[in-house]
């Protein structure tokens, strides 16, 4: 049901390669039904984009939506994932690893990074699939130019259609949000966005919504992923399509405005996003598999050389970095699996063996800890000051665990010898569970409308929980040591000691700050004035605030899981000395 022009884009090698890239990468190793691909998701996103534009244009003819507008929005939905490589977002972590390796090699030399190495390391660490998508799409525009011109796509006073499609896929989000928050977006629109004039700003919220994150990309993958994962979820895109209108915000920018009556539907959708991340995308076993696959692809990267443009040979990472027109399109799940299953490429034997041992025989790294960091109000004093516990870096977590490990080894199974754990055997991931905008609640950025066409924005929601950080620590010893439960238990104990010390340090800092803030008698921000909490120190008299700050409150236990569970007595060992 797509326009004819869409079929011409579908019938190209660049688009068809997405049949060979699974939508959820390695998640199918945990949820066997989740084998759907980015080809189907892209078709679905294009269909929904086309339907949404048609629905809005039919309700509001004054918007003057042209056939060119509709075609551009449809093509943006169709091609938004065009540049995804093998294993999708896992590949971005693999690319960042290549930058880390450059830095590690320079550190081992002891002479620091050269300017060329610094630039190369940064390029690997900053690599994103959106850049590959827009690069491949521009090449596809050149290939299909006569057909696009015949369909009416061009560049004139109404807009530049090529740029419009690119911007719909990858808008300058940071700059747009900055200008919106400062009230300067209307004045600077034409200098920031080239595809369409400011009156059509609402179209930039259809495929990749820079303002709220509610877009047709998510509508499709929420429904598609829940279906194939077998996870229950509710995402009513049809009601949204039938009721959304285009209105102007306070600065004159047009925006998609849903009715106030579907606020709960949108909140349910955001909660479903967090649930999918928690249950599937960030499932502990999925994260283990991703770590192993990154190791395997790093091995392949050292040996495999791809035929590239101009007769050159490139590694996997080099092909991605340059988005080489010959080498990069080969990077699909099917390509990597064929290398690993066949074992015919010279020098890939270690990678093939690692794939068989880890992925096929399921000898996975062990989980030391899985910790949900406290949210606002879950540690002493942080609610009153509005300061939640900051997320640690992965390097800080590993360093902290190794610092506590010798003491934990003396306390857990003290009669047994201690196995040394090199830093390279520990893996740490610091992740976020949120609504798509990290600390921000997208609902606070939506301009809802009422029946009488009055506009209102949801300023605060007591039930919203925008962000929780999660820390995974895995132990990846040689396969022969995977059954060493004593070392694993000692590592878990060391993690607990480190985590409790972090929480204590945060509470001490918040307590000191609370005492310092109390005499100022400044009212707390509106977002912190919630009736279910005690009055903040700032709202009390100085004496009572200091009393409240000094009053002891029982700290909540860590929200933590591990492969080797410690008894309460074991968890308590060494706690007093640590704190």
Describe the model.
Helices cover 50% and strands 9% of the residues. It has 579 residues and is α+β, with helices and mostly antiparallel strands. The protein has a four-stranded antiparallel beta sheet, with helices on both faces. The longest helix is centred in the C-terminal third of the chain and has 33 residues, at 485-517. The N and C termini lie far apart (64 Å). The model is unreliable at 525-555 (pLDDT under 50).
Q: How many helices?
A: 24
Mean pLDDT: 89
Low-confidence stretches: 525-555
Structural class, from helix and strand content? alpha+beta
Q: Going across the biggest sheet, name each strand in turn.
A: 8-11-7-12
Identify the overall geometry. Answer: globular
Q: How much is the radius of gyration in Å?
A: 26 Å
Can you tag this structure with a few keywords?
579 residues, alpha+beta, two-stranded antiparallel sheet, 24 helices, 50% helix, 9% strand
């Amino acid at each position: 049901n797509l326009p004819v022009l869409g079929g011409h884009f579908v019938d190209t090698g660049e688009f068809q390669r997405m049949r060979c890239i699974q939508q959820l990468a390695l998640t199918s190793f945990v949820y066997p039904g989740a084998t759907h691909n980015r080809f189907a998701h892209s078709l679905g996103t294009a269909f929904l984009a086309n339907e949404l534009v048609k629905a809005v244009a039919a309700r509001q003819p004054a918007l003057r939506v042209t056939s060119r507008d509709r075609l551009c929005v449809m093509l943006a939905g169709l091609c938004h994932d065009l540049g995804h490589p093998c294993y999708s977002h896992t590949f971005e972590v693999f690319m960042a690893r290549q930058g880390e390796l450059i830095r590690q090699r320079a550190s081992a030399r002891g002479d620091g990074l050269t300017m060329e190495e610094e630039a190369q390391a940064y390029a690997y660490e900053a690599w994103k699939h959106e850049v590959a998508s827009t690069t491949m799409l521009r090449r596809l525009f050149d290939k299909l130019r006569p057909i696009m011109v015949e369909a009416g796509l061009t560049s004139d006073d109404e807009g530049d259609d090529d740029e419009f499609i690119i911007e719909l896929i990858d808008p300058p989000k940071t700059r747009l949000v900055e200008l919106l928050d400062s009230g300067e977006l209307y004045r600077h629109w034409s200098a920031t966005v080239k595809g369409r004039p400011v009156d059509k700003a609402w179209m930039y919220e259809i495929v990749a919504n820079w303002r709220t994150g509610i877009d047709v990309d998510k509508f499709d993958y929420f429904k598609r992923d829940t279906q194939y994962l077998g996870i229950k979820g509710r995402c009513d895109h049809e009601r949204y399509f039938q009721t959304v209108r285009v209105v102007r915000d306070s600065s004159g920018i047009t925006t998609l405005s849903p009715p106030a009556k579907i606020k709960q539907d949108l909140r349910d959708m955001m909660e479903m996003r967090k649930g999918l991340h928690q249950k599937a995308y960030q499932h502990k076993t999925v994260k283990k598999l991703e770590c192993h696959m990154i190791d395997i692809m790093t091995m392949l990267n050292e040996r495999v050389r791809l035929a590239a443009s101009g007769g050159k040979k490139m590694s996997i990472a080099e092909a991605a970095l340059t988005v080489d027109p010959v080498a990069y399109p080969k990077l699909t799940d099917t390509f990597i699996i064929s290398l690993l299953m066949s074992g015919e490429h010279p020098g890939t034997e270690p990678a093939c063996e690692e794939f068989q041992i880890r992925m096929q025989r399921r000898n996975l790294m062990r989980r030391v800890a899985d910790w949900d960091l406290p949210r606002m109000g879950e540690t002493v004093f942080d609610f009153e000051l509005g300061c939640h516990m900051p997320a640690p870096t992965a390097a800080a977590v590993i360093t902290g665990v190794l610092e506590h490990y010798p003491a934990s080894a003396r306390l857990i199974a003290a009669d047994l010898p201690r196995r040394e754990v090199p830093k390279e055997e520990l893996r740490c991931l610091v992740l976020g569970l949120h609504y798509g905008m990290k600390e921000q609640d997208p609902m606070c950025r939506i301009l809802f409308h009422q029946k009488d066409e009055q506009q209102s924005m949801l300023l605060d929601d007591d039930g919203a929980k925008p962000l929780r950080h999660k820390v995974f620590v895995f132990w990846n010893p040689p396969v022969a040591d995977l059954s060493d439960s004593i070392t694993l238990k000692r590592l878990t104990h060391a993690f607990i000691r480190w985590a409790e010390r972090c929480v204590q340090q945060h509470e001490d800092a918040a307590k000191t700050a609370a005492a310092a803030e109390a005499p100022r008698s400044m009212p707390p921000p509106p977002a912190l004035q919630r009736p279910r909490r005690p009055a903040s120190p700032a709202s009390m008299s100085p004496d009572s605030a200091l009393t409240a700050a000094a009053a002891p409150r029982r700290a909540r236990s860590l929200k933590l899981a591990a492969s080797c569970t410690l008894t309460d007595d074991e968890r308590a060992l060494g706690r007093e000395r640590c704190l």
